[in-house]
Amino acid sequence: MNHKNKVLILLAALAFSAGCEKWLDLIPPQGLIRQEFWQTKEDVDAVVMGAYETFASMDDMLFRYGELRADLVTGDVNLGEGERMVAESNIYPDNWLCNWEDFYKVINYCNEIIKNAPLVREIDNTFTDYQLQGYLSEAYFLRGLAYFYLVRIFMDVPYVTEPTETDDADVYPAKMAGDELLRLVLEDLDNIRRFATTDGYQTLAEIRGRATKASIDALMADISLWLFEYEDVITYVERIEANEEYELLPGARWFELFYPGNSLEGIFEFQFDDQLNQPNSLYGMTQRLSYSYDPSQKAIEMFGIEFSKEFVRGQDATIRKYGEDDFIIWKYVGRAPDGETVRSGSVQRSCNWIVYRLADVMLMKAEALSQLGRYGEALEIINEIRSRADVTSLSLPDSPVAYEDAILQERALELAFEGKRWFDLVRMGSRNNYSRKSELIEIIISSVPSTQKRILATKLTNPLGWYMPISETEVERNPNLVQNPYYIF
Questions:
Q1: Considering the domain 1-196+417-489 in this protein, what is its CATH number?
Q2: What's the pLDDT tens digit per position in 356-368?
Q3: Taking the CB of the first residue and of the last residue of the chain, which one, N or C, has fewer CB atoms within 10 A?
Q4: Helices 41-56 and 101-123 meet at what angle, rounded to 10?
């Protein structure tokens, strides 16, 4: 059997094993797959690429999970019922957005690589230990990123580290506490980081689109911030800052983050190329005639010329106005920050999904510094990013709350519609034993109609309701799974 056919068969089997009716179904252990695959480094590479491709295909879901329940987007007439229910925090376990299947599909790819790539090293004499460790670093990074999303969305989830390839596999794993799981992820990333490359891929798209030391550091910083481990956040971000390959783009070039992408500021981006039949979902979701996702009134006031002094990041860059009360999200639709040049042809659906970029991790560091009382250093970072955006510097009182609010606002301005907002709000609301829960609720209900404010505020009072329920099909299938407490009726 030739290599191409082997690749297609294995990828199909892997997709089936983690993506069919049972998210942890088994790959036949004695069939063609096990006998004829996992023989060469090219086989390993094929599965690594399958993991990236599967994760990238979730760009629409990463957008929804990061933005739908927050305050920067609003649904238009074509928004689906399931999405509308989530936006209103009226969520039930039968909602299709409660399905975590694709995350575990990525995890199963990674577990396959972690288990089988070392065995290939023993067979293929051309497969060097350096190459092996590089592939393993990519697998651990993607698995860690998938788990980080799962914990932030569902709170406590099953922690699976073995591929489901034999009949005696544990296909009914119980949930693990989210914070405990993330500490295991951090341990894995810390152990594998030294094997990741800095810039050893052949193309810029690979350097920005595959795991590097910088992308691992960004993920570790993000997880540490979620766990409120501030000294660690600073350590990881400073590793990235020490690498001169990454720098803030000048304000005049800010839109290069989105077109053409893979900029000097980018750290990790899921890659899309419509010419190669690798289209994104965000163009279709945010272009004018989709009538699905629009900027909220809050976003319009943040970026609209009528209200805001934001120009580099504002109207015609982050959003675009067509008429009175007619705005769209521009980052994934435009080809230039002019509100006029729309993506077309082969680049129409080729905008990358940016997972991490330098401004993002710098603001993580500012947040950590401010929570440690290092206000001057935090303010310097905030104002560096504001200066790049050509807006005036801030002067803030030495207060963690004042800095938290300023950083939350700056992250909204800089990272709007990039799948960050809901997670930023939950982190703020969870800090210091939910001491600012009421502020989180106030931010979220500010964008809903007055008739819905009281109902939504009541639903958000219990922090367990900030997380999604587990899909009812998963709970029915797995006797060891317990539904998230908020959704047990």
A1: 1.25.40.390
A2: 999 999 999 999 9
A3: C
A4: 170
